[in-house]
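Data card: per-record layout.
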Amino acid sequence: MSPVDLTDPRELRRLLARHGVRSARSLGQHFLTDDAVLDATVRAAELSSADDVLEVGPGPGALTRRLAAVARSVTAVEVDARMVAVASEALAGLPSVRIVHADALAVDLFGLGERPPTRIVANLPYQITSPLLMRFLGDARRPPLVVVLVQEEVARRMTATAADARERSFLSVFVQSFAVPRLVRRVAPGSFQPPPRVSSAVVALRTLARPAFAPLDQTAFLRFVSDAFRHRRKQIRAALGHEAGIDRERATAALARVRIAPERRPEELSLEEWVRLARELGVPEAA
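The structure for this 287-residue chain is written out next.
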């Protein structure tokens, strides 16, 4: 019996119907059926037969199948028990694939496979994209390359520099603290079944050998930046006076010493400026 063509909408609907499944918008389920996008995602991961891939949210398994054709192993984490059954049928006969029924936000993602993942490749549920990115990158076990399919608006934030202040957010600084992001390609809603209401994009994240803020303490640095971005429309000297608790006089003096104009706003600072400012204001080094 030939495998189900997971990029054929009719075959996909029949497979889902056999299991009594409809996509759950509450789980952000939009199944990628575009061959060109699937192939571009796999190419961006630069896989070899020595790679062990972690995939989150495999759905029926269209991307999983392509990953398994190249990588040594694929560990696919799926929260929806119904979809685990669907993917288990669709991917039957692929011994290198292991489907794990688990909540990716609640388990040790890096301890699920026989070996630590050397790649993360995933079509991320839109509503939990940021928490998952933080789990992927904030862990010291992060692999050299992470490739994700995300909402286009999120992709713009991930890649935004200080020159793109309107797009820049705490997520920009977070991602770029751990990786160099690259927009691989944009993805139209029609590439999914059912189509989402917004466009998406594939982003490749080549992780850094050490975080850009090292040797500063990770939690302290990220909290410092996050606190300021809670008031991103305020001038930086004022934004530092809220959760960060730095009074205006001290903030102004520190900004002058690191040559950052106090009238600038948090989204206008580069990553390098954030690191300099954190050092100047006494964010501690890692123990």
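Known properties of this structure: The first strand starts at residue 31 and ends at 32. The mean pLDDT is 93.

See the next section for split statistics.
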